[in-house]
């Protein structure tokens, strides 16, 4: 997780985070007004019903007037029914509004994540992203849908009831109002500590989600080493962290909730005592005291619920904070406005350098390379020499930190991302396949490809095996295509790249998992494709290098030599060491074998 | 190997009709509920005593809480008149004192309850998390291939969250509400039987109403769980494959799919909220109608002097208290339903049995030597396509065997059978004379390690990842293993060396570097049988040569099964098996096979040509 995860942010800012999400409520303004009206009227009615009780006791019961009883009871019935109807209205409207808000934030979050570059995704744990898109958003929804409304309603209720109490008999009312003071003080103190714990628990849940995701994605490796219990231990430790923080929250909230229940009860006792004295002295009627205590008891629940709702609010605030951490990250790679009218595929690296963020050692430096339209250049270099990084600069999966990459004379950073990535297609060495049909996986870059084109791409990549799958092209391949062999996955990725009909085709060691016979067939077919496209081929083996017209040798992060394969082989010892091993020492031994 | 055939024909391949489990027949629904209840009961069993104590505590708490309005009534009825008649405030003071005592008891018991219940809740959650996690780890690969990691994640995050919510708020709320309800009902009847009966008259209606709500919402919440799982699956997959998504401009299509799933999830939730929108005011209506009725009837009785004003006042208070918790219950009921649906899914996972089952009486293997035997082994994937028709094979301990053959010849299957990723359909695979199915899992994994092309690295440092092979290894041993496979060079060249963080799924390292780390990890594990399935494909030639050289020494005293398309590996093998159509067609030392001019000789020639730099 990146360092700026905000535990340092001030509380004010956290409240601001939630407040900033208010624009999502805008489409529901009318609804919200209705909801609030319904809610407030409902509260009014809730307060009115006990007052009718007082009327009955002080009126018909005290005066023996049975005629007035029925109308009052009917009034109570009418009010009670309308209260229920108002609740229905409010909840019905609210449901759609808050879920609509949650859904739009989630859509936006996802869209934003898709825009953020590889640099971001490499630094953020998947679990942290997921927990933001699920757990945090539901915390926000819960508060918007329930907490916020109730917080206001309860406050209104508390204020109104206190007002009524003041109005009914002010000395007692004042007493009740004074009891709000300790509540406010304790709430503030509680909030500070609780917010901290809830932020920690949310972050820890993100970490936990990461462990879960890796344990599922890496299940084969775990099984191969029988490390289930070990990974279980790692998970257990993370879960224990969540447990401890959650227990801290339990401790905090249990004290706070209890306190919130004690205050009104103690106040009630005092009210009873002083109220009785007032009745004794004739300052208060018995009916008023009954109504007073009834009303006061109505404060008990709201005040204790206040704790629960404050907790909800705090969780929503930390959640909003965490969500905005992602939404506020500006995509470091955004497209320009240029488009290439008639793309030819002239690719140039001009003094390119690249350093991973957070490191000071450049992976690439001062790389110059000119790949003419239709030409194919092989990039050769030792393991970890930056070959894949170099290729990823072309479709701007990463951006150069120095120099520039141009395509047909345009800096790739000036081209629109859509235009750029239509011109460039990459077959990655580790193919990323999704758990959808073979067809969808193949047409990832061109969903409008015709049957013939698909068939042709399959032919080139020697991926005819897909026709033997139970449902042919419609067969859903498992997650990451893990039920396929490595060679099969690579061939699918290759077919995908070919199908995109790019002007620049990048093959990042795409043939490494193929057997010799298949590789030969694929190369044969690829030669035809590469005639019409500019090609960058990352290669470890002579056979693949031979696809290229020229070879660029990466040494110490820069292109040290460029030239035809044979020339480099004869001239550059480093190149020989990298590629001709098959002819060197091992071959001698094979000859010895023969 | 054509591995897709591993799935059963019953499973849905196209994934269009995603488990439509929301509209289940009542009978199955009942069974599912029973299953989740069993799981819940099982989880709570260790806390039986404590829960009993807690129930007593909460009864006391509610007693105290209920006593307060009652005491107020007593204060008004019998405390005030004596004062009015000048007899002094004695009774009143006693009553007020009683109110304070009740408040104190309530506070103390509440505090105890919240703490204890909170702890039990968290304990249960921790146990559930651990249990489900461990169970997922036990389940076989065939299960995981179908289930996808996104679902695993959704079970362990969103479903657990649902249960957490219930434990956090719902449990406390429900217990309190139920107790308040019964307590209040009793009090109402004690106060005045006639009024009490009138007040409780709507109860059957309420019960019927609740039943309706429960039925409806269990369908809805099942749907919610299902839709969020699909959402999470898509989210996890597209974030894991973001490189391909961006490189192939898949964003807009992904956004469409995601928005669709998001809407499905929203709709399921809207349905749930609408149900509550009906249920909650429904309860309120019943309560308010009852209050109106009591006002009328109670007022009438008070008019006739049949009840005191105090009783009437208390009644109105209690009625509020009676229906207020009902409101709360309706509030918590949805967290309950949601948790119920989550428990249903989790209990379903826990019910899954690993296809590759753990033995009942596991045989430990003390000092594995590495003798591997296939006895009349047959293997076919679930759809019946035979992969290995019948295999008899003995690999003596310490022998290095190279498996050679075209794609789909069954090499990987053979390797996976030795590592017991699958069990044979017929016959048996033996290690040191013990059927793998009888072998203690720990012993098996210590004895046999399979390295595949897929070199999954976990978040953490390079050292952490190498140590995955043997978690108790010292740093020296880690370095030693890395050096042995030729990985030390590149690691040492990194700024932070072995402490370099590998990034998400090892993304900070190149494919070749990941493969070297994976190698080091396997060597550190020091198994008696090492299986390398295409494990060198990403290495460059010098890297591969280093590994080859290392293997000579590393493989010297262990059994090895090596699958490689690049025949350079064959040099270090004592024996070559050429496979075709699941059968061994050639078997012998490499020198002899090359001389015999059979399949292997042909492959060998092709390979020699491919590594030479002459264009073909």
Automatic annotation (TrEMBL), chain A:
SUPFAM superfamilies: ABC transporter transmembrane region, P-loop containing nucleoside triphosphate hydrolases. The keyword Transmembrane applies. Residues 37-315 form the ABC transmembrane type-1 domain. Pfam families: ABC_membrane, ABC_tran. It is a multi-pass membrane protein. Residues 347-581 form the ABC transporter domain. InterPro entries: AAA+_ATPase, ABC1_TM_dom, ABC1_TM_sf, ABC_transporter-like_ATP-bd, ABC_transporter-like_CS, P-loop_NTPase, Type_1_exporter. SMART domains: AAA. It is found in: Cell inner membrane. One of its GO terms (cellular component) is plasma membrane. The chain crosses the membrane at residues 32-53, 68-89, 143-166, 172-190, 256-280, 286-312. GO terms for molecular function: ABC-type oligopeptide transporter activity; ATP binding; ATP hydrolysis activity. Keywords: ATP-binding, Cell inner membrane, Cell membrane, Membrane, Nucleotide-binding, Transmembrane, Transmembrane helix, Transport. Belongs to the ABC transporter superfamily. Siderophore-Fe(3+) uptake transporter (SIUT) (TC 3.A.1.21) family. This is ATP-binding cassette subfamily B protein. It comes from Streptosporangium saharense.
UniProtKB/TrEMBL annotation, chain B:
Residues 372-606 form the ABC transporter domain. SMART domains: AAA. Keywords: ATP-binding, Cell membrane, Membrane, Nucleotide-binding, Transmembrane, Transmembrane helix, Transport. Residues 52-338 form the ABC transmembrane type-1 domain. SUPFAM superfamilies: ABC transporter transmembrane region, P-loop containing nucleoside triphosphate hydrolases. It is found in: Cell membrane. InterPro entries: AAA+_ATPase, ABC1_TM_dom, ABC1_TM_sf, ABC_transporter-like_ATP-bd, ABC_transporter-like_CS, P-loop_NTPase, Type_1_exporter. GO terms for cellular component: plasma membrane. Belongs to the ABC transporter superfamily. Lipid exporter (TC 3.A.1.106) family. This is ABC-type multidrug transport system fused ATPase/permease subunit. It comes from Streptosporangium saharense.
């Amino acid at each position: 997780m990146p360092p700026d995860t905000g535990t340092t942010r001030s509380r004010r800012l956290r409240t601001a985070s939630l407040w900033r999400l208010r624009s999502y409520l805008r489409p529901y303004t009318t609804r919200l007004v209705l909801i609030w009206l319904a809610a407030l009227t409902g509260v009014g009615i809730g307060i009115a019903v006990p007052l009718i009780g007082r009327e009955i006791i002080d009126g018909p019961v005290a005066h023996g007037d049975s005629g007035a009883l029925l109308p009052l009871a009917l009034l109570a019935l009418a009010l009670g029914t309308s209260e229920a109807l108002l609740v229905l209205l409010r909840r019905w409207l609210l449901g759609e509004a808050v879920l609509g808000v949650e859904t739009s934030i989630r859509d936006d979050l996802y869209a934003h994540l898709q825009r953020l570059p590889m640099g971001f995704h490499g630094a953020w744990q998947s679990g942290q992203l997921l927990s933001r898109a699920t757990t945090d958003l539901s915390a926000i929804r819960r508060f918007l849908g329930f907490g916020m409304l109730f917080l206001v309603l309860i406050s209104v209720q508390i204020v109104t009831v206190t007002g009524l109490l003041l109005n009914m008999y002010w000395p007692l009312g004042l007493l009740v109002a004074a009891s709000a003071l300790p509540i406010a003080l304790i709430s503030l103190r509680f909030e500070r500590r609780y917010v901290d714990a809830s932020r920690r628990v949310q972050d820890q849940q993100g970490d936990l989600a990461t462990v879960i995701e890796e344990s599922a994605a890496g299940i084969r490796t775990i099984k191969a080493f029988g490390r289930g219990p070990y990974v279980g231990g790692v998970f257990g430790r993370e879960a224990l962290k969540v447990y401890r923080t959650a227990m801290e929250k339990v401790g905090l909230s249990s004290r706070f909730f209890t306190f919130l229940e004690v205050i009104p009860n103690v106040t009630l006792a005092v009210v009873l005592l002083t109220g009785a004295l007032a009745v004794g002295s004739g300052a208060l009627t018995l009916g008023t005291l009954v109504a007073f205590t009834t009303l006061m008891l109505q404060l008990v629940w709201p005040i204790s619920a206040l704790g629960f709702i404050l907790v909800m609010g705090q969780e929503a605030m930390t959640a909003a904070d965490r969500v905005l951490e992602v939404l506020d990250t500006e995509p470091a790679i955004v497209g320009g406005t240029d488009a290439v009218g008639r793309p030819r595929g002239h690719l140039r690296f001009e003094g390119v350098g690249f350093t991973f963020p957070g490191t000071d050692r450049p992976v690439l430096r001062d790389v110059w390379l000119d790949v003419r339209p239709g030409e194919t250049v092989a990039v050769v270099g030792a393991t970890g020499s930056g070959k894949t990084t170099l290729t990823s600069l072309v479709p701007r999966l990463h951006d150069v930190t120095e120099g520039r990459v141009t395509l047909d004379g345009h800096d790739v950073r000036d081209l629109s991302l859509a235009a750029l990535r239509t011109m460039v297609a990459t077959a990655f060495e580790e193919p990323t396949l999704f758990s959808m049909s073979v067809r969808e996986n193949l047409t990832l870059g061109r969903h409008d490809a015709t049957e013939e084109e698909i068939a042709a791409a399959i032919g080139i990549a020697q991926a005819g095996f897909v026709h033997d799958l139970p449902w042919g092209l419609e067969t859903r391949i498992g997650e990451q295509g893990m039920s396929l062999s490595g060679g099969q996955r690579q061939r699918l990725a290759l077919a995908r790249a070919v199908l995109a009909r790019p002007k620049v085709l990048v093959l990042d060691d795409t043939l490494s998992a193929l057997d010799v016979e298949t590789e030969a067939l694929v190369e044969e077919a690829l030669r035809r494709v590469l005639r019409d496209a500019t090609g960058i081929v990352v290669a470890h083996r002579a056979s693949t290098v031979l696809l290229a017209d020229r070879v660029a040798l990466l040494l110490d992060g820069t292109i040290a030599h460029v030239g035809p394969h044979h020339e480099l082989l004869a001239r550059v010892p480093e190149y020989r060491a990298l590629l001709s091993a098959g002819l060197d020492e091992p071959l001698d031994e094979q000859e010895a074998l023969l | 190997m054509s591995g897709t055939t591993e799935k059963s024909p019953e499973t849905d391949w196209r994934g269009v009709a995603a488990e439509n489990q929301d509209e289940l027949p009542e009978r199955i629904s009942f069974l599912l509920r029973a299953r989740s209840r069993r799981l819940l009961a099982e989880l709570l069993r260790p806390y039986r005593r404590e829960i009993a104590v807690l129930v007593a505590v909460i009864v006391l708490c509610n007693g105290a809480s209920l006593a307060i309005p009652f005491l107020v009534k007593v204060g008004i009825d019998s405390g005030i008149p004596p004062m009015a008649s000048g007899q002094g405030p004695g009774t009143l003071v006693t009553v007020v004192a009683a109110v304070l005592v009740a408040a104190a008891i309530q506070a103390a018991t509440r505090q105890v309850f919240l703490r204890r219940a909170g702890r039990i809740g968290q304990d249960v959650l921790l146990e559930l998390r651990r249990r489900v996690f461990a169970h997922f780890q036990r389940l076989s690969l065939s299960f995981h291939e179908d289930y996808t990691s996104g679902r695993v994640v959704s079970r362990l995050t969103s479903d657990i969250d649902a249960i957490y919510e219930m434990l956090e708020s719902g449990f406390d709320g429900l217990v309190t509400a139920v107790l308040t309800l019964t307590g209040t009902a009793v009090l109402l009847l004690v106060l005045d039987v006639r009024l009490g009966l009138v007040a409780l008259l709507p109860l059957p209606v309420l019960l019927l109403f609740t039943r309706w709500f429960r039925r409806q919402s269990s369908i809805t919440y099942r749907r919610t769980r299902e839709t969020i799982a699909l959402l999470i699956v898509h989210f996890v997959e597209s974030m894991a494959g973001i490189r391909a998504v961006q490189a192939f401009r898949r964003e807009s299509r992904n956004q469409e799919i995601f928005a669709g799933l998001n809407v499905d999830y929203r709709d399921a939730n809207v349905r749930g909220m609408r149900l509550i929108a009906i249920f909650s005011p429904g309860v309120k209506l019943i309560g308010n109608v009852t209050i109106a009725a009591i006002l009328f009837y109670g007022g009438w009785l008070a008019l006739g002097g049949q009840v005191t004003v105090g009783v009437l006042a208390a009644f109105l208070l209690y009625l509020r208290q009676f229906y207020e918790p009902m409101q709360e219950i309706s509030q918590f009921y949805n967290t309950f339903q949601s948790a119920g649906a989550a428990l249903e899914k989790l209990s379903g996972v826990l019910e899954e049995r690993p296809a590759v089952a753990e033995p009942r009486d596991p045989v430990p293997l003390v000092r594995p030597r590495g003798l591997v035997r296939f006895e009349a082994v047959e293997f076919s994937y679930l759809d019946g396509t035979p992969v290995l028709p019948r295999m008899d094979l003995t690999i003596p301990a310490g022998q290095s065997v190279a498996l050679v053959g075209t794609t789909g010849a069954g090499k990987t299957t053979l390797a996976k059978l030795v590592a017991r990723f699958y069990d044979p359909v017929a016959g048996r695979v033996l290690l040191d004379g013990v059927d793998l199915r009888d072998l203690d899992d720990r012993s098996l994994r210590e004895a046999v390690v399979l390295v595949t092309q897929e070199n999954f690295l976990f978040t953490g440092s390079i050292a952490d990842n190498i140590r995955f092979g043997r978690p108790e290894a010292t740093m020296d041993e880690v370095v030693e293993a890395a050096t042995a496979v030729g990985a030390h060079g590149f690691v040492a060249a990194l700024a932070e060396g072995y402490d370099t963080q590998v990034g998400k799924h090892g993304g900070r390292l190149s494919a070749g570097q990941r493969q070297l780390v994976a190698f080091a990890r396997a060597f550190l594990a020091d198994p008696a049988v090492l299986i390398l399935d295409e494990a060198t494909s990403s290495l460059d030639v010098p890297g591969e040569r280093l590994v080859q050289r290392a293997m000579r020494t590393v493989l010297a005293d262990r059994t090895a099964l090596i699958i490689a398309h690049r025949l350079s590996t064959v040099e270090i093998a004592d024996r070559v098996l050429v496979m075709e159509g699941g059968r061994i067609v050639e078997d012998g030392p490499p020198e002899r096979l090359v001389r015999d001019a059979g399949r292997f000789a042909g492959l060998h020639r092709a390979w020699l040509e491919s590594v030479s730099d002459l264009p073909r």
